[in-house]
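Re: the 430-residue chain
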Amino acid sequence: MKDITRRGFYAIVAAGVLTAATAGGAQAQTLTLATSKASAAPLAPILTRRGSELLVRGQRRRLSGVNAYWLGLDDNQRDSSGAPTFPSHAQLTATFSGIGSMGATLVRAHTVGISAGTPKSFATAPGTYSDANLDSADWAVYQAKRRGILLMVPITDQWNYYHGGKGVFVHWAYQRNRSGLVDVPAPSHLFDAGSAEKGSAIEDQFFSTSAGGLRIRALFKDYLNHWLNHVNPYTGLAYKDDPTIAIIETGNEIYSATAEWTEDIAAYIKSLAPGKLVADGSAATGLAVADSPGFHAPHVDIVGAHYYAQDANWAPAPIMTLAGQLDRDVSAAQGAGKAFVLGEYPWTRADIGPWYAKVEAQSGIAADLTWSFVGGTETHGASFGSDDYPIHWPYSGSQEQQYAPALARHISAVSGAALSGGAGSSARAR
């Protein structure tokens, strides 16, 4: 296929997508039924799949970019009581300007889709929803759309972080009807990020087909229904109808998900939003793609992996020790007819150059996303909140000065590349 420049890629993505922004911000409201606000007519999908390939408006492309988990609610900027805050429109605009300047074509955005269990969440209580609490997420989607950047959005989390996860729905179902369920221990359902695995075995009720498990699932499906039908006032589109939200991921590192649950949720998403690609959300460090619960699921389009090379003591190991696992996972995905997305990997490593070269040469990777991007106007202390691998752009810190140019070169080399041939070859954008 003919090669394409990044500018050409953005033009392809953005063509026909932008809609007039609705005047004014979202009005605060609490809903108990799916939003009745009319959405503009759904737009044709930008991103589609052909077997193990991702297509942008019908042309095979590779995507590359970053994770930006905090776009809907930010744990790095906290209020006087220590609670996370909503990112400002100015911060989000600067962020997407920076992401676009790096050449990114895909962003993985956790808190656009994971938002349950606190007064600042989309789902503030079982069956109760606040459109106003998605205002930052709405603006982030709008800014991505303006720049022709696509979004990959997880919808729940294995971990008990501040934005909510599967433990919230287990707790809510237990509160409604305790029969057949065990409550997750506090502070697990209150997002104790310092011990995020607390209660994880009990939270696996989330995936159960027992009577109690199906009550949990019904609450989660209600959440998905409301979230997909939420109308973004800045685009005029419901999330289900907006092709900028190109990939919906069944979760973040939900490695205990079952094949039955994954297919059921994927099919439910497709029933409400048939234009979306669905990614298996079980990817986590050390897990093989061939063992993922969505590997054989008919309604799952994408499988993937997260790679953090660590030894048994969680100390850094040479990242190229993962090269064989990468080849194995890509080959498995291709054999199953699924697209492979490398969803997370660190960028602050002295040995990262050979890894970039490996990823660039392996054309069976449909997309790759580094961890993670933080806001262009955001400031941090030495610990960077909960983020161990923060990227700003334009960059300024010593760590960024050392590693960010190589990351930007990698993203630029991969993003929007038109491909031909098999694994191990790629035609790069110039």
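The chain has eleven helices and 18 strands.
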